[in-house]
Amino acid sequence: MTFNKTCALGRALEQGAMLERGALVTGHLQLVLAAAVSVLLGWRWLQRQARAGGRRSPPGPFPWPLIGNAAQVGWAPHLSFSRMAERYGSVFRLKLGSRTVVVLNGEEAIRQALVRKGADFSGRPDFASFGVVSGGRSLAFRSHGDLWRLHRKVAHSTVRAFSTSNLRTKKAFEQHVLCEMWQLIGIFLQRSRAGAYFDPWMNVVVAVANVMCAVCFGKRYRHDDQEFRALLSKNDRFGQTVGAGSLVDIMPWLQHFPNPIRSVYRDFKQLNRDFYLFIQEKVHRHRQLFRPERVRDMMDAFILAIDHQEVTGDTGLKLSPDYVESTVGDIFGASQDTLSTALHWVTLYLVSWPEVQRKVQQEVDRVVGRQCIPTIEDQPRMPYLMAFLHEAMRFSSFVSLTIPHATTRDTLLNGYHIDKGTVVFVNQWSVNHDPHKWTRPELFNPERFLSEDGSFNKDLGSRVMIFSVGRRRCIGDELAKMQLFLSVSLLMHQCTLTANPSERLTLDFTYGLSLKPKTFTINVTLRDSMEPLQAAVQRIQEAEAKQ
Ligand code: HEM
């Protein structure tokens, strides 16, 4: 027994000594490894410097092997980047996994890169996830080149032709918004019966998507259509995969063994397939009923331009027929996610600051009256509403970082050398919250956009950066502003929104390509009669029935 004990003790001591020796050896090994890694990094840095001909690359934090600076980016990359910019300057460099990333902060650096050096910064990274969107023919996620230029021209002119190009198209678009807002308000009132509070998110998404469905392929869906809701409910997962700082593309080795990132990417591929099939089915039916002399909607316009007129670019390149699907997919996807997120933030701000809501209602009543309904022509006479919408976009900066860019050639920015193919993150949030440009940017204050005479300060409004700038600037900015103006003016003319007193309202968000507010509930009451709105919708429906 004793022997055994001694033996056991002896073995334990021996094991202890071995462990200690092991620890010593491991300690030495760690030192040797650390030294080797440092030498390797130093050598690679020297090589890079030599390749850059001694030119300076942007400063930045020390990158760790394998993950680089991924741990420093955290849950809200735009906030981390703004903090890093205070230390390293408005142009700095990071390593995310295997990729070098240059981050641009503040208006000067961003305009310098995207506008003055637009050709050098208009590429997209060769990320695997970008190749999955719209069957690999996405306008938004593919890199620059002649085909992209032609694609963008066709898409941009068609979007304008069905929304903002003249008063007739504006009126046609306005009617789609009017019908959807009438439906949405009806549902809000139903869900608010007996003083109930409800989460407005999914109804807002369906209403916004329905406007784009009507414009793109002349169809709308019921709010309780489960298939449509399931399709739209995947917006978050899309944005989390393609948003700047997502781990899917910067650590491709994570795809080789089971882990949450691999599941996210598999989900992403599936949701892109589902979305593409949804659009493909609509295009198929449209092609069967297509008549060139009767262009019914945006989809017909793309079929006409791509299949029949075979538009060509300067270099003679053509878009193949499957660009109809990818273009409609891009426009439908890009618009419904961003616009529903914008309306969700607007709703949150209206219930968070009831005095702002009252001012909007007073202005709408003064300009429109209670017997008519707001129209797009009322916009110039509603400076407070315009100020509120611009403050909502500035304060939320809900597309905090644009879709990632990439350099198209070796280039110089602020005296720093940047290699061709470098990933570039554009921090729009830093522009909208720059304390040197905005007084107390952390406060929500629509009045900042009003001049002394009470008019809307357009110059200041144009300094809010949410649609990006330069060659990749959003092609739907005018449509988006028009839809937001019409939706909010109609909502405020008809209803009062109230926060749930048993809930603590928070301005926190979930990160992705667009920042989403956390769930909140509201109650909606009718201000007086819905008759003028009802009558306007009836007139539209009767006119449609006659066609
Ligand atoms: C409030 C609403 C919207 C916001 C905040 C917004 C914002 C943006 C941003 C930040 C980009 C990326 C620009 C860059 O990478 O530098 C973008 C691209 C794009 N947006 Fe929008 N967008 C909105 C609505 C729309 C709408 C309504 C449409 C379509 C009708 C649309 C279509 C597109 C397209 C096609 C691109 C890709 C452009 C390209 O890569 O060349 N967006 N948008």
From TrEMBL:
Q: Which UniProt keywords are listed?
A: Heme, Iron, Membrane, Metal-binding, Monooxygenase, Oxidoreductase, Transmembrane, Transmembrane helix
Q: Specify which residues bind heme according to the UniProt entry for this protein.
A: C474
Concerning SUPFAM superfamilies, the annotation shows: Cytochrome P450 (SSF48264)
Q: Chief localization class?
A: membrane
Required co-factor(s) are: heme
Where in or outside the cell? Membrane
> Pfam families, from UniProt?
p450
CDD domains in the cross-refs:
CYP1B1-like
Q: Which Gene3D superfamilies match?
A: Cytochrome P450 (1.10.630.10)
GO CC entries: membrane
Enumerate the GO terms in the molecular function aspect: heme binding; iron ion binding; steroid 17-alpha-monooxygenase activity
The family database entries (InterPro entries) matched by this protein are listed as: Cyt_P450 (IPR001128), Cyt_P450_CS (IPR017972), Cyt_P450_E_grp-I (IPR002401), Cyt_P450_sf (IPR036396)
Residues crossing the lipid bilayer are 28-46
Q: Which terms under GO biological process does the entry name?
A: hormone biosynthetic process; progesterone metabolic process
Family stated for the protein in its record: Belongs to the cytochrome P450 family.
Task: Quote the protein name from its UniProt record.
Answer: Unspecific monooxygenase
Question: What organism does the record attribute this protein to?
Answer: Scyliorhinus torazame (Cloudy catshark)
- Lineage, please? Eukaryota, Metazoa, Chordata, Craniata, Vertebrata
